[in-house]
Amino acid sequence: MGHGGDVIAELTADHGEVKDFFQRIDRTTAADERRTLADKMTIELVRHSIAEEMYLYPAVREHIDGGDSIADKEIEDHAKVEALLKELEDLDASGAAFTTTMRRIETEVLDHIADEEENLFPALRRACQAGMLHDLGDKIRTAKKTAPTRPHPGLPSTPPANKLVGPGIGLVDRARDLLSGRGKDDGEESGGADRSRAA
């Protein structure tokens, strides 16, 4: 969930985790393992997206020339992926529709990652001092701890509404995950603040 470093290091590490999930899902044919991996990937993607919407994109709007249009495009990308993740929730992991939807998610997410890493992150590094980037990294890590873990396409995606609604929805999501075991590995124990990434 948290990797340390400035906002760019934190989010780039998240991107690496998500890419790893795609590779692991591609390598397995067992439906139960595909579902478990898809659930974990969804948890990470949703928390990452919410944290970006709470803190990264407001900084982009404030500090980068043309930041409003950049942030709007990034939020639009998130909305597309969130709708696909919502669709994926109800699909049988052994079916063709699951594979097709997963491929669509992978394409959207990898395009989004490439755009952020090649364009947005370098622009942010040029526009912001190191201290601000580290402060944003801390805020992103904190936000991921309380963010929702399930896709909610209707939730607000900009402050202040997302900062007010997100943590409450996140609490409900983590309670549902804890009760259902969603996002846990076999043998994992539930509970504990550090285990919240799987909750």
Molecular structure report:
- The termini are close together.
- The protein contains six helices and no strands.
- Helix 2 packs across helix 5 (130-146).
- The longest helix has 33 residues, at 31-63.
- The model is unreliable at 187-199 (pLDDT under 50).
- It has 199 residues and is mostly helical.
- 73% of the residues lie in helices and 0% in strands.
- The chain has helices at residues 7-27, 31-63, 67-89, 96-127, 130-146, 161-180.
- The protein is globular, with a radius of gyration of 16 Å.
- The relative contact order is 0.16.
Classify the beta-strand content into a percent band: under 5%
Label the structural class. Answer: mainly alpha
Strands, total number = 0
Distance, first to last CA: 11 Å
CA radius of gyration is 16 Å
The SSE string, one letter per element, is HHHHHH
Largest sheet: none
Helix content: over 70%
From the spread of the alpha carbons, the general shape counts as globular
Number of helices: 6
Features:
199 residues, disordered C terminus, 6 helices, mainly alpha
Task: Give a nutshell description of this structure.
By secondary structure, the protein is an all-alpha fold.
SSE diagram, text form:
Elements: H1 7-27, H2 31-63, H3 67-89, H4 96-127, H5 130-146, H6 161-180
